[in-house]
Amino acid sequence: MFDKILIANRGEIACRIIKTARRMGIKTVAVYSEADRDALHVEMADEAVPIGPAPAAESYLVIDKIIDACLKTGAQAVHPGYGFLSEREAFAKALAAAGIVFIGPNPHAIAAMGDKIESKKAASAAGVSTVPGYLGVIETPAHAVKIADDIGYPVMIKASAGGGGKGMRIAYSSDEVAEGFARATSEAANSFGDDRVFVEKFITDPRHIEIQVLGDKHGNVIYLGERECSIQRRNQKVIEEAPSPLLDEATRRIMGEQAVALAKAVGYDSAGTVEFVAGQDRSFFFLEMNTRLQVEHPVTEMITGIDLVEEMIRVAAGEKLRLTQADVKLNGWAVESRIYAEDPVRGFLPSTGRLVTYRPPQEGETGGVSVRNDTGVFEGGEISIYYDPMIAKLVTHAPTRSEAIAAQAEALDAFAIEGIRHNIPFLSAIMQNSRWREGALSTGFIAEEFADGFKTIQPEGDVAIRMIAVAAAIDHLQNERKRAISGQMRTPAALAFERDRVVMLAREPHPVRVDDADEGIAVVIDDTILPVVSRWVPGQPVWTGRVGDHSIAVQVRPLPNGFLLSHAGAVSEARVYTRREAELASLMPEKQVADTGKVLLCPMPGLVKAILVKVGQEVKVGEPLCMVEAMKMENVLRAERDGTIAKINAKEGDSLAVDAVIMEFS
After folding, report:
1. What is the pTM assigned to this prediction?
2. Residues 289, 407: one domain?
3. Which CATH number fits the domain that encloses residue 638?
4. The domain spanning residue 581 has which CATH number?
5. In this structure, how many other beta carbons lie within 10 angstroms of the beta carbon of residue 433?
6. Which of 81, 349, 416, 557 has the most beta carbons within 10 angstroms of its beta carbon?
7. Which domain holds residue 645?
């Protein structure tokens, strides 16, 4: 077994690998760019080596720098995590030439299956059914359009060396193919150093199901069940689960056996994932193979009890698999949410800045329900523009799917993040979605369920009642503290009056009364008495306790005369007044929102890649105006109305803050 390994990655996956290595008694070496000098993975590792400037192309993607770090520290092996160099045949070969073990598959397997084009050729040669497409290299937009016309729309343009949704576009027309080809090749070059793309038929109403395989260097390969990854946005997975609510045991076995056969055909000898596109009738087609650890591997670990990182390390060290196929048992259900630094109400645009508050829910097992949080950040740390916007992966495991979803919803409510925008409200909304809860999924789920984009959900029904009760309980606790100050009057009349309040939830008044109870307090709302019990104290970002018969968590941010509350996907201001204050507040005029219709604002911090118009040019709705790159994704900003360009305030190469004025219209 190795004494020391280097992790050629960053963020949550580097931290996750370090945890397993530490448990195995293996020392770890972290590498870091200038932007990651104070990162969590650097602090966690036994040693850390700087490898260059912030851009990945100058640090994490430079093979020679990784090998040099190994030689300096005496690391015997390298775990690549996912992304970056994890699927580079050249990296595995360079390590071998330097006498360093690659904790991943052999170079032949990477070449055969890691490249999306070559993997489809290998699958076709092995008789595996694949999605119709063109597997050759595409040189020009015109060539891409011709291929798409022949295949039939819609088509998917995908980076050959891609992953994580980078370098991927769906096109429904020849115009979209031409633009998608340009964006996909550019993103592929920036993210993977390889601009090759291919085109294949996009299956309508599909589900994305993948099989986890594990092989050793002695010819043994097994499969560890499946994961459903159909909840995607812009081809980027958002929520994953294991097992899939679609599959039955017979289909699971067929898919697993097919994945194993494919892996054996190329001599696969590590953890890997065979991905399938599946129809609602359980038909399926080989899509691609990822020759690395997947982002969503924790859900497989939770239902199998197998540490995939440990198995990868043991296989790389030459050990035989410790399991046979008969040993693999699936236990319960696991759900994973990817928590990103992005603003869901502004089209999921990236958000950067400092994590003023970062308080994840408590990890561990209680009553048969487990909570796990894989992260690479910490409170006070910074979310950079240079890398993937992932903050954490929140995983819950329970005996059944419905229990795992309920646990995930509660854990999301208990996850407090401030300082940057994040997608927790969106994830919470999905947990409450009836279609999601029923398991009626497809890769078009988000586009269909949120066709007009995501808007902040206003509290209704039981959710609103609980939020009103929590607001009243918090206000009552704070008033009790104030009355305890020396010299404050505590006459019976004053105390009786203070128990009557009006909670303004989403600007709607709700008269309440707060009474004492044997345990906690009782909040009376519309003649309904709700016992409220909590140990919350002012200053804590999450209120946890019981309202009626429900144990809940509510995120709390102080506001003048109230709070900003978030619970079960709903977000709302809750201002608490006396009856007289409520009467006066109703007379106050509402603040008018400024008209920004004559300017183009930068929707996220980013780099201006291109200005696509000129001063004096007339533009129509939907016409591209400029392109801004943030977190390795290129975003084309388009005109929202007809107009004429009056002034351009930015130029190519400028780094802009959110809401910076890019151009003005007349």
Report:
1. 0.83
2. yes
3. 2.40.50.100
4. 3.30.700.30
5. 16
6. 81
7. 599-665
The pLDDT of residue 661: 93
pLDDT in the model for residue 349: 81
CATH (domain of 232): 3.30.470.20
Q: What's the mean pLDDT when you consider all of the chain?
A: 91
Instruction: State whether 374 and 514 are in the same domain.
Output: no
pLDDT band at 196 (very low <50, low <70, confident <90, very high): confident
- Residue 427's SS3 state is helix
Mean pLDDT computed over 452-461: 91
Asked if residue 379 belongs to a domain, the reply is: yes
8 A C-beta contact, residue 417 and residue 424:
yes
Which of 74-78, 110-114, 136-140 is predicted most confidently? 74-78
Whether the per-residue pLDDT at 518 is higher than 80: the answer is: yes
Q: Is the domain of 50 the same as that of 82?
A: yes
Helix residue ranges, H only, 164-284:
174-192, 249-265
Active site residue 288: yes
| 301 exposure class (CB count in 10 Å sphere: 0-12, 13-18, 19+) | buried
86 phi and psi, to 5 degrees?
A: -65, -25
Backbone angles phi, psi at 531, to 5 degrees: -65, 135
**In angstroms, rounded to a whole number, what is the distance separating the alpha carbons of residues 205 and 198?**
21
Q: What is the pLDDT of residue 164?
A: 63
Q: pLDDT tens digits for 395-411? A: 999 999 999 999 999 99
Supply the pLDDT for residue 557: 92
For every residue of 326-341, which 3-state class applies, written as one string?
Answer: HHCCCCCEEEEEEEEC
Identify the sign of the CA torsion 639, 640, 646, 651.
negative
* Cβ count near 108 (within 10 Å): 14
DSSP state, residue 356 = S
Residue 85 pLDDT greater than 70, yes or no:
yes
Is residue 380 included in any domain, yes or no? yes
Q: Does 386 lie in the same domain as 368?
A: yes
Is the same domain home to 369 and 232?
yes
The answer to whether the bond into 298 is cis (omega within 30° of 0) is: no
- The number of angstroms, rounded, from the C-alpha of 49 to the middle of its chain's C-alpha atoms is 28
Q: Which of 288, 311, 336, 410 is catalytic?
A: 288
DSSP-assigned letter for residue 603: S
Whether residue 388 sits in one domain with residue 298:
yes
Q: Report if residue 431 sits inside a domain.
A: yes
**Same domain assignment for residues 244 and 370:** yes
CA distances for 27 relative to 51, 63, 80, 536, angstroms: 19, 21, 16, 40
Percent with pLDDT over 90 in the chain: 70
Q: Angle formed by the axes of helices 249-265 and 116-125, to 10°?
A: 100
What are the start-end ranges of the E strands in 107-255?
A: 133-134, 155-163, 166-171, 197-201, 207-215, 221-233, 236-242
DSSP count for the chain of H helices, then E strands: 18, 40
What is the rounded CA–CA span in Å between residue 399 and residue 368?
A: 7
Percent of the chain beyond pLDDT 70? 95
Total structural domains in the chain?
A: 5
> For residue 134, which of 80, 78, 201, 77 has the smallest C-alpha distance?
201
* CB-CB neighbours of 631 under 10 Å: 23
Mark whether 96 and 8 lie in a shared domain: yes
Q: Is the pLDDT of residue 489 over 90?
A: no
What CATH number is associated with residue 141?
Answer: 3.30.1490.20
The per-residue pLDDT for range 35-82, each reduced to its tens digit, is 999 999 999 999 999 999 999 999 999 999 999 999 999 999 999 999
Binning the chain into helix, strand and coil, the percentages to the nearest 5 are 30, 35, 35
